[in-house]
Every structure is written in structure tokens, then in C-alpha cells.
Amino acid sequence: MSFLLTGINSTTFQIIVMYIIGALLIYLAIAKKLEPALLLPMGFGAILVNIPFSGAMNTVLPGIGEVSGILQWLFEVGIEASEAMPLLLFIGIGAMIDFGPLLSNPKLILFGAAAQFGIFATITIAALIGFPLHDAASIGIIGAADGPTSILVSQILKSEYVGAIAVAAYSYMALVPIIQPFAIKLVTTKKERKIRMAYSPKSVSRMTRIIFPIAVTLVAGYVAPASVSLVGLLMFGNLIRESGVLGSISDTAQNVLANLITLLLGITIAASMRAEQFVRAETLLIMVLGLIAFIFDTIAGVLFAKFLNLFSKTKINPMVGAAGISAFPMSARVVQRMGVEADSQNHLLMHAVGANVAGQIGSVVAGGVILGLVPHMLAV
After folding, report:
1. How far is CA 179 from CA 87, 171, 270, 295, 374, in A?
2. pLDDT at 242
3. Which residue from 321, 103, 345, 143 is spatially nearest to 334, judged by alpha carbons?
4. Spatial contact of 163 and 269, defined as CB atoms under 8 Å apart
5. Cα angle vertex 204, ends 201, 209, to 5°?
6. What is the 3-state secondary structure (H, E, C) of 290-304?
């Protein structure tokens, strides 16, 4: 125990813990292939910034003074000062998304709204157990199942737990194939999971696909003006995709831009994972609250689908509601796999994809709502 009682040895212990966390993230990325584009750079970055007197962070050298570190510079410029990295990533994400399944069955947008319940439930829980409101809101947004939104909201609200929130958000996104089946089975019967849904896609015109991102941006902008940077860049990426005149740029946004920003974001966010900031009881509590947010999101989506079934002649498989979170396309694949497990002829993928892309919209709007409300509540 004396090893932990001295200041120097306590710091050494914290650094070792961060090396272990970094190694675990790298292991999950390589061995388990869980969000490798993010967990690998994040894990390596966690090791990089915790090397004593690391040149990756700002350091003071005798006779020279302060020397800028590349990761701290990237963090200050790309995340802290402008939030540019998470926002630019939305362009690539928008270019990847095909809103066709949602436009073919617009009522699926309701699941994208219902599955955000976990965000606000977790904010309430975090505030009740003692987190300041701006930190509680930042923790709750983990339930958006959207890493860039989590980073953006926590950074704008000046939460001191940005690193822990980012790790929780991306770790649980990677663990969706484990978390969601557990949560779904808690609130469904095997009979409900066997419900078949016929898929007869309606033709979606090119004009509709072009108008949709513009309309969503306008509606979201007037409902939650703080969401414009989030929704706007997501929809801008989608407009590039659907315009039909920017094919090479769309491909670049989906691949080169998205991959490059993802790698840089992963290693840059590690600048907020210094041992003295990360290794504390609050981090563990944030991980627990993040898990609660994901479970509540999933359960809320399922229960909302069951509620709709009370008034609908054509039954919805409740599992489709669980795909209303933003973890695209992992959540849709989970629902498809569970549907086939319950009934080998039960194919739910396109319904789940529609709910899943609705969750993309729902998560960024929820982030905008929080950014609009919390500063006003703090000012009162």
C-alpha cells in the first residue's frame, strides 16, 4: 500500500494504468476488430501522451522554455478551439448514408426520436448523483451512440471528462453487438422477435433525395438552432452524395476524408487522456452511466415499437425500434441477425436500416437540443 501513498509512486501507478488501457484499446481494435479506425489510434495515443515529458504534449525544456507538442496542438486547434475535426467527420458520414429506406417508410423516423430517451434519462441520473449540469449533459450524450457528437457536445460544454466520455462512447459503439441483444431480450419475447415484416420498397425519386437533406437542415435549424453545425454538415455530406454531379468528391468524402479525420480524431482526443485526468473514480462512473444510456436507448426504442403495435393492424417487430440509435450500420445488423435467429425466414434488415439512419438524424438533433438548452439553464 505504501507504493500508492507517495505522490511520485501514485503518479507512476496512474501512468501504468493508462498504458494498460491503451493496450486494451489496441487489442480490441486488432484482435476483435472493434472500431479499429478509432480504438487503435486512441489506444496508441493514450500511451503516447502518458510517457513522462512526452514531446507529443507541450513541455518545458530547461534553457529553452515551452515547446509545443503535436497532439496538444491538434487538440487545441482541431477540437478545443473550433470543434473542426468532429464536425468535418459529419460530412463523410453524411456522404455514406443512404436515406432511401427511411424515405421509403417515413414513419421509421419516430424510432430515431424514441431511441434518444437514454440520453435524457442518463443526464437526469448523472445530475442526481452529483455531476454538475454541464458534465451531466456531456455524459448523457454518450447515449447518442455517436462518437463525434459526444466529443463535440462535451467540448463545447467545457466538460472536464472529454477523454472519458470519448472512450465510453466509442467503446460502447464497438460493443453494440453485445449490448443490444442483451437489452432487447430483456423486454421482448421470442414470439415478438419472430414477427415478420414484409419489405416492399417504394420508389424514391432523385428529387426527393435531394430535397430531403435541405428540408431536414431547415426544420432542425428552426427547431434546434444549435444543431445546425451538426445536422447541416451531416446533410451537406448527404447532398453531395445525392446530387449525382459530384461522384468523385462523394467517394473522397466517404473514404479519404472520413478515414483521415477518424484517425486524426482518435489519436488527438488522447490529449485529454492524461493519467492525472483519466485515472479517477469519476471515469469508472462515467463508463457505467454510458452503458446505462445505451441500454435505455435500446429499451426505449423497443417499447415504443410495442406501443405502436397496440394501434396498428400491421405489426412491427419490436427489435426494429432498437435500431433507432445512431450506431450505423451495426445496430441494423444486430436486429437482422436476431430476427434470423428467431425465424430463419425473418429478414428485417431494410426496416432496421431505415430506423438506424433515422437515429443518425435523431442523435445530432438531440445534441443540438442539449447545446441549446444547457447554457441557458446554467445562466439562470
Report:
1. 27, 11, 25, 7, 29
2. 96
3. 321
4. yes
5. 135
6. HHHHHHHHHHHHHHH
* Cα–Cα distance measured from residue 321 to residue 339, given in angstroms and rounded to the nearest whole number: 13
C-alpha span between 215 and 74 (Å, rounded): 34
| DSSP category for residue 131 | -
Q: Which three three-digit cell numbers place residue 136?
A: 451531466
Predicted pLDDT of residue 170: 87
Q: Is the dihedral of CA 22, 137, 330, 309 positive or negative?
A: positive
Verdict on whether the full-model pTM lies above 0.85: yes
In order along the chain (380 residues), what is the average pLDDT of each group of 10 residues?
48 92 94 89 95 88 79 92 90 94 92 94 96 96 90 92 91 90 96 90 90 95 88 96 95 95 93 91 95 95 96 92 91 95 92 94 92 83
Q: Is 161 exposed, middle or buried (0-12, 13-18, 19+ CB in 10 A)?
A: buried
- Rounded Cα–Cα distance for residues 326 and 170 (Å): 12
Q: Where do the structural domains in the chain lie, given as residue ranges?
A: 2-379
Q: How many Å apart are CA 240 and CA 229, to the nearest integer? A: 16
The candidate with the shortest Cα–Cα distance to 116, out of 370, 372, 307, is 370
